[in-house]
Amino acid sequence: MRGETRNAPMDATQKIALGSIVVGVAVLALKSVAYLLTGSVALYSDAAESVVNVAAAIGAFVAVRVSATPPDRNHPYGHHKAEYVSAVVEGALIIVAAGAILNEAWGAFQNPRTFELTPAGLAASLAASGVNAGWCLLLLRRGRALRSPALVADGKHLLSDVVSSVGVLVGIAAALFFRQPWLDPAIACVVAVNVLWSGAQLVRSSVGGLMDEAAHDDTVALIKAVIAANAEGAIEAHDLRTRQAGRLTFVDFHLVVSGDMSVTEAHDICDRVERALHAEDADIIVTIHVEPDSKAKHAGIVVL
């Protein structure tokens, strides 16, 4: 089973990634207007995070473009891990944004500022949150369907942004209602902590992909079941290994057959198993090592 790059899914991924840049710029503009109309440090923190959103969206677009590049001499397994690199960079940018927010909040603590929640500023902030929420749901749904770590990472980041934005508006309203200006930078600090947490989680999951984490338990169970049901003529399969690389799942295992079986017969069994696995998931890449029955371990996958 050869790792051919399918054009349709990658085309869709690239279009969504490009859309994220457009949405990010629009949301940044709305949040900047909200900050300028209110003078709120908390809304500044919200806008600062959107700067990162735009940078991260650009990085994600570049990553999916690179990951769509077919395998070459120097990268025979393809370029799919480029998306994990993008996600790590996005996590680092999130952490930088959190530092900028904390710095601004500290300045506001030292020199309290007056601010007001004008109708126009409120409308701009709500509009930005609405756009972000809608795009976030699309990114998460389509990113998982297309197995794009870059799109899923972008979606998770935007989800954190939406939660932060709602919390900012509630906090600003409370600060004005109770006439406590210090609540404004305090809210900004809470936003920064939330941003740091999302950045750390993003980096952790992306590093896992770069370190060749195994496929999810459900995926491994499905692979074992397909092998067991379609390797008729073989004795057993053992030493199954899996790893994820972007949307691809690499699978390799040893298939034990009778010592007097011909090469053609063994090859036919391998082809049948590969077709069955490919039917379950077109993005599975399989490598099978055929062994004689003297190598049987009497463990692993029993052929049905």
UniProtKB/TrEMBL annotation:
Belongs to the cation diffusion facilitator (CDF) transporter (TC 2.A.4) family. This is Protein p34. The chain crosses the membrane at residues 16-37, 43-64, 84-102, 122-140, 161-179. One of its GO terms (biological process) is intracellular zinc ion homeostasis. Residues 20-211 form the Cation efflux protein transmembrane domain. GO terms for cellular component: plasma membrane. It holds the Pfam family Cation_efflux. SUPFAM superfamilies: Cation efflux protein cytoplasmic domain-like (SSF160240), Cation efflux protein transmembrane domain-like (SSF161111). It comes from Methylopila jiangsuensis. It is a multi-pass membrane protein. The keyword ATP-binding does not apply. The keyword Transmembrane applies. Keywords: Cell membrane, Membrane, Transmembrane, Transmembrane helix, Transport.
